[in-house]
Amino acid sequence: MAKTIFHAADQRGHADHGWLNAHHSFSFASYHNPEKVHFGALRVLNDDIVSPGEGFGKHPHDNMEIVTIVLDGELAHKDSMGHTQTIVPNEVQVMSAGTGVTHSEYNHSHENEVNLLQTWIFPAKRNVKPSYDQKTFAPEDRLNTLQTLVSPVEKNDDGLKINQDAWIYRTTLEAGKTVNLTPHSANHGLYIFVIDGQVAAAGQQLNKKDALGISETESVEITAAATSDVLVFEVPMEF
To answer: What is the rounded average pLDDT of the residues 3-28?
Structure first.
C-alpha cells in the first residue's frame, strides 16, 4: 500500500527578512522540523519572493544539485564558473555544485518582485566537476501532459541534466484533466507541489502551494478540479 505525507501550504516554514519572504517545505536555515528534513533525495524546496533591488549576495555551495524555477519576475545569476545569466518565467536553471561553486542571485528590477522556487537534490556522486545549464520550456508543451524539466545525466531526453536518478516534471492541467505518473523504480517516490490551482492525487485534495509525498506506489493519477500548475519531483527514497 502506498505511503503518503501531506504538507499543507500554511504549515511550511516561514521567514520574512524584509527583502526576502521565504516559505520552506523542508527544514532550512533557522527553520527546523524533524518531520520535514527531506523527502528521499529531495532536500530543499524554497518558495522565495525577493523584493525589488534586493538579492542573495555571493555565497558557496558544494555537493548539491540545485534547480531554480522562476515563476514571476527576472532573477540575475552570476557564479564562479563565469556564468552571468538572467532567469525568467518558463526557464529552468540547473547547477551541479560538486566540488564547490559560489554564486549570487539578484532582482535588479526597481518595481517588480521576483518569485522563484529553488530546490536542492542530493547528488548520486560527490565531488563531481561543477556544471551549469539553463533552458526555456514552452508552456504549451505541458498542457494536460507531463513536461520533463530535469532528468538524470545518462538519459537522452529534453530535461536538463543532474547527477542523480531523479526527474522534475511540470504540467498545466485543465479542469477535469488527468495525468498519470509511473515511477522509474520501486525505490522512487513522487513529491507533488501545486504552484497554483486545485488537484486531487492518491485521495488527497491539494490546493495552491500544498504538497503530497507518495512512495511505495506503482502509479499515481493527478486530476485537476480547476486549471492548475503542478510540479512533480521523482526522487530515490534511499540513495
So the answer is: 97
